[in-house]
């Protein structure tokens, strides 16, 4: 007996409501990303906390690397535990609260409080990044594989819309120099708009008889998967490729604000314009690439996005010095000052980077959903997080070290280009249509 049209419509509306509740979490948590990681606290840390000393980039890279090391180590184990106990939502709530509380406490950081700033940032970032393991793992439950690309894109588009709204709310604070107050605002924003996921999205719960602790179960399942994952070369090639190209993306996220402020001497108003450009094009890019990836495949869409990234980084390099041939040439053509050419060129960089910032992450999440065994989705999204967070240790650290030892952030951005190129070469070995290895499903864990 076929379901009635009324029941079908009700089911469709219910699915759309679940997807909307899920995307609202992206809308919520990106307030942390834009205020703390990318823009306000990142610049505040360099300019105020470290008092604008050159070693500030190195301290910032150390803080990000420590937080990513912690997240990389615990993510696969947490994912395995959550799969075993069906507790994604509980873990997501726990780590979200950690991030929210630590973010609010950044209000108390003042000039010279470097260690306290690093500790609070590490705690907040571990909460944020660890929570994403469980948030991402909801995707396969929300829609069919043929729609992974666009639904993942909806999430990232909502995230960048959240960044845009966050900047609009923060602007009055920024205008009067009340930067620390924006940290509290970000925490409240995150808390309020994450609530729909916890209130309306179901998390299948099951009672599990066990003679071992969840920690031991998690560790055993992780070691089993590590032992057998090499049998699935397709998934391994994707994760290795992801490790490199997301390294570039993470480094851009962590240092774009500092780069514009320190190398290009952007004022706070110019920084705001830059990030509005990034967030606007990121919304469009996530939506457009979501549709493209479902049409031509996630792998091809990823390859397109990586070519755009490589061009963007090279363009940023050649237009970030008043003495570069590119800047001199453009200044002569448009009869403009070199400083203005550098500023407007970086706005173009923001437009290009924004168009693929969310798209690269969104399309990667969709492809991972296709390649992951359904029975161990959270565990394998833990590995996905492990590779992503491990890369975020190396990329920002390399950038910070090159910047510190050469005294040039402009030279440091060339390291980002290398990561995108290696990721692109490895991605060529991934077969999007190849199913996950069945050997990964035979664990008794």
Describe the protein's architecture and organization.
The chain has 445 residues and is an all-alpha fold. The longest helix has 34 residues, at 5-38. The radius of gyration is 22 Å and the shape is globular. It starts with a helix and ends in an 18-residue tail after the last helix. The chain has a single domain (22-199, 214-441), classed as MFS general substrate transporter like domains (Growth Hormone, Chain: A, Up-down Bundle), CATH 1.20.1250.20. The chain has helices at residues 5-38, 40-49, 56-85, 88-105, 114-136, 139-142, 148-175, 179-200, 214-229, 233-262, 268-296, 298-318, 325-334, 338-371, 377-406, 409-427.
Keyphrases for this structure?
mainly alpha; Growth Hormone, Chain: A; 16 helices; disordered C terminus
Q: Residue share in helices? A: over 70%
Q: Termini distance?
A: 39 Å
| CATH-level-2 architecture | Up-down Bundle
CATH class: Mainly Alpha
Number of distinct helices: 16
Q: How many structurally independent domains? A: 1
Supply the CATH superfamily name: MFS general substrate transporter like domains
Q: How large, in whole angstroms, is the Cα Rg?
A: 22 Å
Mind describing the biggest β-sheet? none
Report the mean per-residue pLDDT as an integer: 84
Low-confidence stretches at least 5 residues in length (pLDDT < 50)?
437-445
SSE class: mainly alpha
The H-and-E topology, N to C, reads as: HHHHHHHHHHHHHHHH
**What gross morphology would you assign?**
globular
What is the name of the CATH topology?
Growth Hormone, Chain: A
């Amino acid at each position: 007996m076929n379901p009635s049209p009324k029941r079908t419509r009700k089911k469709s509306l219910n699915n759309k409501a679940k997807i909307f509740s899920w995307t609202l979490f992206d809308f919520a948590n990106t307030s942390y990303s834009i205020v703390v990681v990318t823009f306000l606290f990142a610049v505040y840390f360099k300019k105020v906390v470290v008092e604008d000393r050159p070693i500030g980039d190195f301290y910032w890279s150390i803080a990000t690397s420590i937080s990513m090391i912690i997240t990389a180590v615990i993510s696969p184990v947490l994912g395995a535990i959550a799969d075993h106990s069906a507790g994604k939502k509980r873990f997501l709530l726990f780590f979200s609260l950690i991030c929210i509380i630590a973010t609010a406490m950044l209000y108390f950081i003042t000039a010279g409080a470097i260690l306290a700033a690093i500790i609070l940032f590490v705690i907040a970032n571990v909460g944020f990044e660890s929570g994403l393991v469980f948030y991402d793992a909801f995707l396969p439950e929300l829609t069919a594989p043929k729609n992974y690309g666009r639904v993942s894109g909806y999430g990232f588009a909502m995230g960048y819309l959240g960044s845009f709204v966050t900047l609009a709310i923060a602007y009055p604070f920024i205008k009067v120099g009340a930067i620390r107050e924006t940290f509290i605002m970000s925490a409240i924003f995150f808390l309020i708009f994450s609530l729909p996921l916890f209130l309306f999205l179901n998390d299948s719960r099951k009672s599990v008889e066990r003679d071992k602790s969840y920690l031991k179960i998690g560790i055993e399942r992780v070691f089993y998967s590590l032992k057998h994952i090499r049998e699935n070369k397709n998934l391994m090639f994707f994760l290795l490729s992801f490790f490199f190209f997301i390294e570039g993306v993470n480094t851009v996220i962590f240092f774009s604000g500092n780069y514009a402020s320190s190398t290009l001497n952007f004022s706070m108003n110019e920084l705001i314009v830059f990030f509005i450009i990034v967030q606007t094009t990121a919304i469009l890019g996530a939506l457009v690439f979501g549709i493209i990836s479902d049409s031509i495949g996630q792998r091809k869409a990823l390859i397109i996005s990586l070519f755009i990234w490589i061009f963007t980084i090279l363009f940023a390099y050649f237009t970030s010095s008043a003495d570069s041939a590119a800047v001199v040439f453009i200044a002569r053509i448009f009869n403009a000052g070199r400083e203005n050419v550098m500023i407007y060129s970086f706005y173009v960089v923001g437009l290009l980077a924004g168009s693929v910032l969310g798209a690269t992450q969104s399309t990667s999440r969709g492809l991972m959903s296709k390649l992951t065994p359904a029975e161990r989705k959270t565990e394998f999204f833990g590995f996905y997080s492990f590779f992503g967070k491990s890369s975020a240790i190396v990329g920002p650290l390399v950038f910070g070290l090159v910047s510190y030892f050469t005294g040039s952030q402009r030279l440091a951005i060339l390291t980002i280009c290398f990561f995108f190129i290696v990721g692109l070469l490895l991605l060529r070995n991934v077969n999007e249509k190849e199913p996950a290895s069945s050997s990964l499903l035979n664990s008794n864990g």
